[in-house]
Amino acid sequence: MTSLSARTPRFALVAHDARKDEIVEWVGLQLVPLSGMHVFSTGTTGSLIKTAFSELNVTCLKSGPLGGDQQIGAMICQAELDALIFFVDPLSPMPHDVDVKALTRLATVYDLPMACSRSTADLIVDGLLGEKTDERF
Ligand SMILES: O=C(CO)COP(=O)(O)O
After folding, report:
1. Among 39, 85, 127, 133, which has the minimal tally of Cβ within 10 Å of its Cβ?
2. Is Lyase one of the keywords UniProt gives this record (predicted)?
């Protein structure tokens, strides 16, 4: 087993419009651990996070409806991510619903730690940075 310090954890952070304020707030609460990670994000979510926390290492992909969800899905297939934090809006129809479903499906297929809520996102951060029993690091 390699140690966590062997490489920087890579997190994808994504939120639908109704939950963008929530993900920015969550990032603020997890700023210390996230500072040691490489963050990938869909376009609009990533810009908001970058604006709020310029000290974070954030790579912005395409906006979700323009292919950003699919870019993150491709990263999952290529084992380029360690976790997906995806604050989904369960109450609104989405024009790119198929992309949303494909993304969560791929996270499941590849057994990638995925959180759609703050409490689970906290558990993932704690789990990945706590005592390591996970051979992915
Ligand atoms: O739509 C999204 C995820 O499905 C998020 O995309 P944005 O961060 O570009 O709004």
Report:
1. 133
2. yes
